[in-house]
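Why do we care about 3D structure at all? Because function follows from shape, and shape follows, mostly, from sequence. That is the central idea of this module. The next example makes it concrete: a single protein chain, its amino acid sequence, and then its structure expressed as tokens.
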Amino acid sequence: VYIAHLETCFLNVTFMYSTGVVKRYFQILEEQVEEAIVNKDEQKLKIAINRHQKVLKFFDDMKTAYEKPILFTIEFCGLYVGLTSYFSSLVIQGYIHKIILGLCIVSSVASLLTIIIYCINASNMYDLHDGILNALFEHRSCFSRNNSFKGLVSIMMTRATIPLEFKVCSVFTINLNLLIKILKCVYTVFNVLLTSINRKFKETA
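And the structure:
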């Protein structure tokens, strides 16, 4: 269990680092695109488009690398929450020791924290293209009449309209909405658990 938690911590750190790298690249791209549009520099815009393509490739590789770990983390979170609920009733009945319940609670909290890290960082990446789009629209009056330059602008604008969604196995998208659903589910489970515990106490009283 401890080895699994260490691996999860390592994945969390690398995931946050990877998302930070993508964000930094997009900040640089935004500056490059804005400079190229203002100066009507076709060569700089070509360089920005090529770099943008490389960043998108890096993002796709990152999604592939973290797809299964995120899915397993969500599954383990559900497992730990279920075990915590089950062991809570067993502790009340005196069948198992409280330490086992404590370990399950710690594991549940750790899994939830991991999911929160994934959801928040993935959600922050969703609108990274907004900076590039804003730069293009704010300086649209600077667009050259050169058809070649306009074509490059169109390519960049088309690619920048694609949201950076972090999907897992094409089942669900990692974002704040998913986090809210998971937290609601966990809250419902523990609320039902507390209700059943109170009912047992009333019956034994």
